[in-house]
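new request in #modeling-help
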Amino acid sequence: MTDRDVVSHYLDNFLNCPETSLVFSGKDYYENNKDVAKAAMNPLEHYLRYGMKQERRFLSETKCIELFEHVDPLDTASIADIVPQGQKVRVLYTTAGNFFFQDIAEYVAESLRTLGWTAQVMSDRDAREGEKGWFDLVVAPHEYMLIGPGYLWSEERQREAAYFNTEQWQTPWFASCLKHLYGSIPGVIDLNPTSAAAFAKLGIRAAFLPLVPLANTAFQQRRATFSKAFARRKYVELLQYPGDIADRQYDVLFVANLNPRRQELVARIAGGLAPLKSFIHAPIMDKPVKAGDGDMLSGRDFTQLALNSKILLNIHRDEIGYFEWHRLFLYGISNGTVVLTEPCYRAPLLEPGVHYLEASIADIPDLITTLVSTPAGIERLRSISRACLKLCAETTLSDMVKL
Amino acid sequence: MIVREFDDVFSSGTSIPKITIVIPLYNYEKLICETLDTLLHQTQKDFGIVIVNDKSTDNSLEVAHQWCRENAGAFGRVRLISNKENGGLSIARNTGISATTSEYIFFLDADNMIYPRCLDRLAEALDASGAAFSFSLLEVFGGRHGVVGTRIFDVDILADGNYIDAMAMIRRSALEAVDGYRVMKYGWEDYDLWLRFAESGMTGMQVPELLGRYRSHAISMSNTTTASNSEAVKRQIIDLHPWVKLIATPEFLPKGAASQWSRISRYSRIISRLVRSRVHDWREFRHMIGHFLQTYRTRRLRGLALELRTLEAAVLRQNKHLDIKDVRWLPQFRQAKSQAAALLPFGFSLTKTPRYAVFFHFFQSVRLEETFAAFSDLPPGCDLYITTVDEQTKRQVMKVFARGTGGSVDVKAAPFIQNGCEAAITVFRDVTRNYEYCLMIHSDRGEEGGWYRTQRQILTARANAGTILAAMEADSSLGMVAVASHDHKTELPADDDLRWVIARAGLRVDPTTQTDAPAGSMAWVRSAALVPFLQAEMTAADFSEKRGLGTTITKLSYLACENFGFNWLEVVDSLDVNQNTEAPRLTITDVSDLSKAIHCRAE
């Protein structure tokens, strides 16, 4: 059978066919797009003809979970596969978007420089944005290609650029930029190891670039004064920065956007958290966060809290167990704070039980209590914290990426 | 502070603790003990309790009395008082405040609970700060599971609605400063209190821990806001604190339509806000929402269209189809003083370079380059505000204009806009106010050349534009300058849409008389002359399906100009090969010549 035959067979028999796609399921597409189901149009055909342009939800969550569970986080392309060595790299971001992506863009450029490239950050306000002779690496394509100037680019330029993906697959933002990731000739760099490995399964060349506490970037982790404006509205104790993790003043630190899943789960473990000294920064947001918002916890303040907390608690956004590298590695592990998370997909270099702890929501309250209030628990915190700090001290960025 | 007379039912201890918990109690015989028991396990031991029975009709008083007798020994001070008359939540809390002298007062509803570290942590936060009150995250239990109190005390966030429960520790001094809880007929006493704190410049401190449990069930005191009085409670809050952004059902809707309204307002807060700020009757509302739907054809709004039909049916059933409010018509357009046109360019020039805005509407992209060239010819100081028919044209415009014209450029796709004047008073309303002078022009959708093009060329030629600005600078009574045309007298279309615009702008115009103003819709304008239109706060959606209304609006602007004491001026130029007017030409060499050419109503 030719490819064409396979496709036409699928189109004719889609409801009875085994769902062979790795991420698409006609049934789930119907589930997520009830109007298509009502019209009884073939879901794949609908997606290819209209859904992709309309940026509809098309990824099947169950299929993604299945895919992510079976990928090897080390099975990715190398950075040099995506960004040819010797190229002058222009790392692009849009000023119209989330403030956070400027930090990411600056980090990406700095890390490329550390790894031997010539790289420069340019925003959409920079006059050199369209100059020839540069290799384009677009940070957060879901913003740059939609609300930034990317949509003005010729198709050729869109294809010739590489993209730095920051979004989880089940989100609408990811759906909105997937066509660019698919179309890219050089490929994709992802800040999540699972996501990078899964791209390969879809035939998209992708590499993993971890966020590490690199000097001269917003992600450098170091002691600094806590922002006064933030502490005026939210009660923050005088931070002590003790040497021993057992003396850190906050037992549990939880930082997240409180979506309905997290709300429900936090409520379920509230009784377990209540006896402990916790710091819960989890505003329920209905608008994108801007720098200067009263309710925004800056990366710098997050670091200060992490340096004074024993445990960094992680609850996934959805049922998908991403290792949320940014939160877990950067703020948790690299500050020697013990990460306790719902079960995650594996990340390179990190061993559950050695560098972080995993537990189901039901087990989390008891585990926290044991960790902070028994001698054996405290010893465990110390050993994990030491293992994390040792790993970070001995590992450089080039050890962590494929070049 | 409004309080009730009360009877002392139980009293023990004589100490004056720093913290007192005030518990208003009304018909919670089944839950009050569970609530009170959580006080036994507090890590903070030095606190008092005041239970205020608000004339419960069940056994609450007896149950609480029994609990006090059994447990009072564990606390420094316990008081159970009973109001002689039922007063409601606010008065019960105020009575509780009056029954203690503690510095910090923690309010606990009789069905909620607190975790052991609650008082300790909240008091610590107050000790360490100057905040008026401290509050924490609360676990929601019972009917649903969740978390509340997740955001900091912030005036902007509070304006959107309440997210801080009454379970907070408040300084006595702060409570006294605002005279305690206000009696709110329909509820939301706590929200009102936070808003009054905000208005007095006081703040709250969030303690980022889970310290209390909020019971979610149908009859919780703070949950008394049922569908039937939710509108009333919102309206009460809006009346007391006009700065909040809550949305109440518009008053023009009949009672039967409130539930349909609440379903609609869920769809889009944008709609609700538009409605709240500007719409006064059903017809206007229907009109506006209809155009909103056309403008934003998205899947999400399909449901809204359905709901809207239901709402409309409800309105019609109630026979409340309202007519546009009466407009008092006054005779306008008397004979103009002068019929002369001033010959461009004038013989004097600008003394300083002003910043001015050009509002331009693009129908199509074919003459992009030509238009770009025209703008490049304008005198320095020009910022461009462009609307386009669609996103595609917008992109093309952005591409071409990215080369720069010396000033800022802002492009917006606004399909219903017809010309620069509409753009200036709708999508760019807020920027228009910032400029003293504006140029309003648009592209022609028709044939090559023609009247539109001539007008545009005359008004944008550098020498002409410079001297027009110089004239406006020299004569502050000069409101508008337009190209002279021979068909001055145009009848304003006597339709409802026009009446609507006139009513909205508050103009005194008789729409049945003829206008005496140049044809066409391009002009240099002093933005002060546009004030009535800017204040009308119209949106692009108001202009859909109203082809040509923009031209009418430009015409009305000559009237507005006169109403506000400004004059206007017609100009001609040798460029105008068709010689669109036979008016006598005046050569202007000096400011004093202007008065000879100026059009204004003859008294």
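bot summary: Residues 219-227, 319-335 of chain B have pLDDT under 50 and may be disordered.
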